[in-house]
Amino acid sequence: MTEEDKRLLNTFEGKMRNLMYLFEEQKKEISSLRQLLSEKEAEIERVENSRKELESKYANLKMARIISINDDELRDTKKRLASLVREVDKCIALLNE
To answer: What is the pTM of this model?
Structure first.
């Protein structure tokens, strides 16, 4: 084996070691990212379950509120809504001027 061949072989070995090191570092990073992804997926699932529970509670609360409304409250609510609509109409009229 000539000196040139030995030099090329040493260069190749160095590059191969560097490549293997980079490969191991990438494996570690991938493992870390997979762990992070797993944690985030679990967090998303917890948040989704919480959201569903809150939606259910909100629907129940809405239903209870609808059932508990009496005529006076309904009349007052209609008056407040009509007042708000008039205010919005005034604002629109002012904007159109």
So the answer is: 0.53
